[in-house]
Amino acid sequence: MAWVESLQKAIDFMEDHLLEDMTMEKIAQQANSSQFHFQRTFSILTDITVGEYVRRRRLTLAAQDLIRTNEKIIDLALKYGYDSPEAFSKAFRRQHGITPTDARKNMGKLKSYNRLVIQVSLKGAEPMQYKIVEKESFQVVGVKESFSWENGENLIGIPKMWEKVHQEGIVDTLVKVNDASLKGILGVCHAPLSNGKINYWVAAASESDVPNGFENLTIPASKWSVFEVHGAMPDAMQNAWKKIHSEWFPSSGYVHAGTPDLEVYTDDNPYSPDCYSEIWIPVK
């Protein structure tokens, strides 16, 4: 359970430094994790980004200060990281639905986001089907786009990317060049980049020449934990990721190897409850 304890340590660090400037690097260090993998794990387990969690907590505490103290709104704005009363008021209203002035007058309801405590289910009532696979390095060909993980840009951008590659016939081309041992269309998460973003690929394993307009990426030799995913997209895939991070990793003894993850999509109907797909995670 050291993995869970490390994650909680990072959350406690955020709580202890809510009124300070925190870098993602320092937060991730508390969990003995890379910035990318900490942000990804946090988002999967909580359904919000690290940045959104910090914003919600700060504005929750700001609301309490408005009610309990006589601090000026301009001082509270600076205290909670806002450059101006206008920026503070806008963020405050977005979360609470009322202005700071109204909150001070007890005019309306406030929304409180409490301190987060990670609780992991290890009951194992629903078993996970997985296998460990050793695989040599291989090439994938496809198209890629860059997304920010920190602000949840990926949650919007990646689904749009999938729509685009289907509409433009890119997936049809990938099906034709998928001549390697790993069959299926791949979602490849390759991170992190120097600018803090990730590269996400829609690709296929291929030993053929790279088609015009496509790029290639070498997936390194790895030990993979391969999970079966059953059910309609996208819920089945999202639920599987959450279960892997909340149940399997804490009890498995494995940690992420830091190389690209793969989502493997078969030619099954993605909207069918019988759809079969896989998640490949490099482990050590």
TrEMBL record:
The keyword Transcription applies. The keyword Cytoplasm does not apply. Keywords: DNA-binding, Transcription, Transcription regulation. InterPro entries: AraC_E-bd, GyrI-like, Homeodomain-like_sf, HTH_AraC, HTH_AraC-typ_CS, MarA-like, Reg_factor_effector_dom_sf, Tscrpt_reg_AraC-type_HTH. It comes from the Bacteria. Gene3D superfamilies: Homeodomain-like (1.10.10.60), Regulatory factor, effector binding domain (3.20.80.10). It holds the Pfam family HTH_18. One of its GO terms (molecular function) is DNA-binding transcription factor activity. Residues 8-106 form the HTH araC/xylS-type domain. This is AraC family transcriptional regulator.
